[in-house]
């Protein structure tokens, strides 16, 4: 009689087969080793550093900064926010050049874009946003709406499935000026229909702003083709730019001469060094800048963009699907019967690259896992996010993480 392997053995065997056949398997060695970490499952919050990042920074200190000194502004630094933005646009966003810039934090860029989008909207105009959106998005929208006499309308979609085009259509009114939504939900991982929702919003005569923080670098998109108006995203998750790395903003080319962002600084002026008495915004994406660009903060993500260019965003997406599918299989086999809830869409086409699990004990479980070298992400009130960054994560690592959660659960 043939014995049936226990779930853990079967899952690890399946992970081994997937890793052996993984066309992106070699990319795992392109990242700095995480000493003492058995499973890093938080790449959707902070990506691991790419190998060579320290050398890149050292060369910068000795060369462009240490030797080039202030001359380096003329020799590349002034153009870096736009060159790097164009590269992000080409590799990750489906955006032609001249529409993406790397600049401030996500919050500041979101503030700039929302403020620009509602400029001139008369009192009583409306902004539509999901009630469960990331706090920054909600806080920025509420603050600007109050300051400009606008009304905020709230969407309340299914917390697992996420917002749909039909729900957005039902939430629009003749007074809606702007819709602000997230491409991949930061909790459930639900992937919104960007093309469908953007079309619905445009049919109503409103502008569409997407938050790409949990999709940039892991989910292919076609901002230009889908007619997206505005977008913002961070670079320290799947773009591995490091803690506090600057964010990026996208503005559709046809809108750029209409965008007047509220933080008027010298770097956004038409003539940066004129030092004139009146602010006149620059043409194109330079008008999104305010202060001096964070050149040092732009260094680490360049290594990840090199890897993304080699791998291709479609291949990254395919591995994301196999990773999350295996994680959900592991949930079914070792966690479902323990009272853990699956809070992520089962359809791989409807989710990003993280899986959300729920259990009342998960705050304490996460604390124990961190001590044991297994690092997922806790999200209150009782969720563990399993963030699977495709280029730096193996299938075996994902399974080890799920098995560790099962072992740490109280009886």
Describe the fold and architecture.
38% of the residues lie in helices and 13% in strands. It has 13 helices and 13 strands. The protein has helices at 7-21, 53-65, 71-77, 80-93, 106-118, 135-148, 165-171, 194-203, 223-226, 300-311, 313-334, 362-371, 395-408, and strands spanning 39-40, 100-102, 126-130, 151-155, 176-182, 207-211, 230-233, 248-251, 341-342, 354-358, 374-375, 377-379, 383-387. The strands form 3 sheets. The chain has a 7-stranded mixed sheet, sandwiched between helices. A 4-stranded antiparallel sheet has the order 9-10-13-12, with helices on one face. The chain has a two-stranded parallel sheet with strand order 1-11. A hairpin with a 3-residue loop joins β12 (377-379) and β13 (383-387). The two termini are 32 Å apart.
Concise overview:
The chain has 411 residues and is of the alpha/beta class.
**What share of residues are in beta strands?**
5-15%
Number of domains: 2
Strand order of the largest sheet: 2-8-7-6-5-3-4
SS elements, strand count: 13
General shape: globular
CATH topology of the largest domain: Aspartate Aminotransferase, domain 2
Query: Gap between N and C termini, in Å?
Result: 32 Å
Q: What CATH architecture of the largest domain do you see?
A: 3-Layer(aba) Sandwich
Low-confidence sequence ranges: none
Helix content: 25-40%
Q: Based on helices, strands and strand pairing, what is the structural class? A: alpha/beta
Describe the biggest sheet?
Answer: 7 strands, mixed
Order of helices and strands: HEHHHEHEHEHEHEHEEHHEEHEEEH
Count of helix runs: 13
Please give the CATH class of the largest domain: Alpha Beta
Q: By CATH's scheme, which homologous superfamily of the largest domain applies?
A: Type I PLP-dependent aspartate aminotransferase-like (Major domain)
Kindly provide the radius of gyration, computed on alpha-carbon positions and rounded to a whole number of angstroms: 22 Å
């Amino acid at each position: 009689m043939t014995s049936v392997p226990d779930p853990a053995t079967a899952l690890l065997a399946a992970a081994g087969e997937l890793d052996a056949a993984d066309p992106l398997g070699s990319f795992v060695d392109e990242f700095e080793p995480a000493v003492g970490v058995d499973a890093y499952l938080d790449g959707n919050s902070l990506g691991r550093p790419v190998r060579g990042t320290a050398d890149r920074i050292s060369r910068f200190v000795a060369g462009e900064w240490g030797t080039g000194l202030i001359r380096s502004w003329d020799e590349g630094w002034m153009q870096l926010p736009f060159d790097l933005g164009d590269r992000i646009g080409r590799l990750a966003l489906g955006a032609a050049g001249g529409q993406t810039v790397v600049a401030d934090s996500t919050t500041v860029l979101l503030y700039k874009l929302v403020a620009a989008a509602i400029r001139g909207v008369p009192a009583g105009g409306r902004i539509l946003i999901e009630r469960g959106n990331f706090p920054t998005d909600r806080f920025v929208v509420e603050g600007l709406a109050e300051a400009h006499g606008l009304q905020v309308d709230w969407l309340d979609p299914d917390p697992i499935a996420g917002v749909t085009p039909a729900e957005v259509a039902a939430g629009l009114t003749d007074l809606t000026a702007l819709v602000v939504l997230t491409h991949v939900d930061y909790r459930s991982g639900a992937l919104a229909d960007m093309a469908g929702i953007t079309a619905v919003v445009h049919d109503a005569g409103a502008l569409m702003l997407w938050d790409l923080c949990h999709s940039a670098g892991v989910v292919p998109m076609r901002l230009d083709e889908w007619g997206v108006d505005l977008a913002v995203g961070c670079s320290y998750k799947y773009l591995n730019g490091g803690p506090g790395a600057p964010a990026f903003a996208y503005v559709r080319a046809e809108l750029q001469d209409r965008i007047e962002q509220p933080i008027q600084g010298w770097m956004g002026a038409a003539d940066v060094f004129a030092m004139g008495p009146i602010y006149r915004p620059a043409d194109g994406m330079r008008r999104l800048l305010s202060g001096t660009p964070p050149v040092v903060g732009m260094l680490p993500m360049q290594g990840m963009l090199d890897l993304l260019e080699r791998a291709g965003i479609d291949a990254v997406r395919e591995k994301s699907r196999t990773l999350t599918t295996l994680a959900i299989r592991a949930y079914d086999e070792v966690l479902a019967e323990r009272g853990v809830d699956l809070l992520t869409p089962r359809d791989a086409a409807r989710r990003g690259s993280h899986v959300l699990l729920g259990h009342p004990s998960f705050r304490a479980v996460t604390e124990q896992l961190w001590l044991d070298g297994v690092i997922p992400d806790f999200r209150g009130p009782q969720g563990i996010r399993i963030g699977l960054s495709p280029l730096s994560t193996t299938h075996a690592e994902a399974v080890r993480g799920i098995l560790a959660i099962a072992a740490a659960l109280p009886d």
